[in-house]
Amino acid sequence: MTYCAVLLLLVVAYLFGSIPSAVWIGKHYFGVDIREHGSKNAGATNMLRVLGLRAALPVFVIDFMKGFVAVTIMALMKFDASISPAWIINLKIFAVAASVLGHIFPIFAGFRGGKGVSTLIGAVTGVQPNLALLCFAVWVIVFIFTHYVSLSSMVAGCSFPIFVALFSSTLYSRYGEASWLFIIFSISVAVLLLWTHRKNIGRLRQGVEPKTYIWKKR
Description:
The chain is mainly alpha-helical.
């Protein structure tokens, strides 16, 4: 029964991640398939560049929340006596992977999604909010100085395993056996962000990556 419950919750996490907010909002309210414009990425950043803040803000909120909720529901397993608190964290990490996978390959949008950054932020917040806040601070600082969303996301993602390493003793005291998986998870997050932004890396090297100005009129 426990394995079935875990599998069911992971499927639910994937389905939450598969909600294509950018695609649905773009089509329903603006008559635009965001995947055919701008960077062709179904995410908040491309929505901001193509349709403005009014379109991008709800997309970010929904993408954030679907990651957060997908991870938080794993806490339901605490009612199973065979699941230790440490393994609750492990299961939440698996839910992060499932929700982000759903965002990148959404079943509700022909498996053509976004890069998963907003969903990843929400999911990581559901696992360890303090570290997520530190990474967000890094993102804000890099963005203020560069106005590159892609660079900000990659630097923040790569800072995640650094913060985990710095606070590894605290994580171990709180989560025990789950700490090692959390470290592997943090490294995987950094690698995933670099992989999903590989085209952005090429444009940054060529000097043609577009900058983003949140309050700039369109």
